[in-house]
Write a structure and sequence with these properties.
With about 250 residues, the protein is α/β, with parallel strands linked by helices. Helix 1 packs across helix 11. The chain is about 40% helix and about 15% strand.
């Protein structure tokens, strides 16, 4: 059962961490248990999930060394169903290493979760390569803007490279479109452009609407589902995307 999913894009600001945590929130709301793996030296997922990166003694950096994942994984303030393998700024020292080490570590714990969600840094370096090497499925996160679509080909090329060199079982599961405004001709054009590049079937539905409540949830370090009716359209989108992801991981 392919439970490990890597979410990536080389561009920052597309909401990759937001999508990772939104899926984790939806999983917990559905009664499922997930592990979030923070591979970003900025440690945004770690912070939003209620853990101060400066206080982390055993992080994903150490697991990329020789530490056991059991010594690093912690529960989060969001839910007992959401566990975290936290990041620290020590990850910057792991930009050169053995890409297969993370996979070996996650294979020790993946069976305990309905899914493992890996939040990669906004780059295509060794940390993202490690995330893809560990994964059963890759999901690209984009936003419908000119800059948001730049570099899609480079991300696809890295996935192909990892498939060839490190992980022949890696599946490009699809693309999640984030931060979609309610009415925008520009966004519509960029969505159509994305569909021409990757094909409509590769784009997961629904798209995630752009809402201020998402930024508020991040700032307050709370899950999107914690806001009830105020975040209903965003929460529903994540619920449906989680169901799709579950079908992938149970295939």
């Amino acid at each position: 059962m392919g439970r490990i999913v890597t979410l990536l894009n080389q561009k920052g600001g597309v909401g990759k961490t937001t999508v990772t945590l939104g899926l984790a929130s939806a999983a917990a709301a559905a009664g499922h248990t997930v592990l979030v793996v923070d591979l970003d030296p900025q440690a945004s997922s770690t912070w939003v999930l209620g853990i101060d990166p400066a206080d982390v003694e055993v992080s994903s950096a150490e697991v990329l060394g020789k530490a056991s994942p059991h010594d690093a994984i912690v529960e989060t303030s969001w839910s007992a169903r959401i566990h975290l393998l936290p990041a620290s700024n020590r990850l910057q020292l792991r930009e050169h290493g053995k890409p297969k080490r993370l996979r070996g570590a996650l294979e020790q714990v993946a069976e305990s979760y309905d899914a493992v969600l890996i939040d990669c840094p906004p780059s295509l370096g060794n940390l993202t390569t490690s995330g893809l090497t560990a994964a059963d499925h890759a999901v690209i996160v984009v936003e419908p803007s000119a800059l948001g679509l730049r570099g899609i080909a480079a991300v696809a090329d890295l996935i192909d490279e990892v498939w060839d060199s490190h992980n022949a079982d890696l599946d490009l599961a699809g693309i999640i479109v984030n931060k979609v405004p309610g009415v925008s001709g520009e966004a519509d054009r960029r969505y159509d452009e994305l569909a021409r590049i990757v094909g409509k079937s590769a784009i997961w539905q629904p798209v995630i609407p752009h809402r201020v409540i998402v930024n508020q949830a991040t700032a307050e370090r709370r899950s999107i589902h914690a806001y009830g009716a105020r975040s209903a359209d965003v929460s529903i989108a994540f619920d449906q995307l989680w169901k799709k992801l579950r079908r992938k991981t149970r295939a």
